[in-house]
# Entry
Amino acid sequence: YSAPTGKGAVMNVVFDFVPVWTLILGAGIFFYVLLDGFDLGVGMLYGLAPDVGTRNVVMNSIAPIWDGNETWLVLGGAGLLAASPLAYSVVLSALYLPLAFMLVGLIFRGVAFEFRFKTEGAQRRVWDWSFALGSTVATFCQGLVLGGFIQGINVSGGQFAGGSFEWLAPFPI
# Structure
């Protein structure tokens, strides 16, 4: 800050929000990976459960924390938009398709999670497999997003300059 002296002096205080937003986004990503990573892992292994009793135990192990986990994902997206709209627009433009497929997988597994408890017999098995499939799709797409981000995003003039399938490369896959 600068503090001029004299009568009528105005003190200008400049606060750098970059470290604050870095901590907020970092915490959001950390908690999402930690908490929803557990849910996604359980979901992917869910199809391997041998019987209904085991599947009920597995599903009940994630039920208490189920609804809160996607909150961290929303915090990350909204935080990135608030902290850096330019970075948000470039990343979203570059990775739109895998992010959209990831959200479809997350929605699919959320629907399967809720409907599974309301059905019996063959319908329950359909929702069981839907939960496992949605978890696998969401996890794979998160890997594509991370791989595409690490691979690099082609930017020119502050805008995404690549193609729609630039993320579809050997490294992200």
User: Anything to note?
Assistant: Residues 121-151 form the longest helix (31 residues).
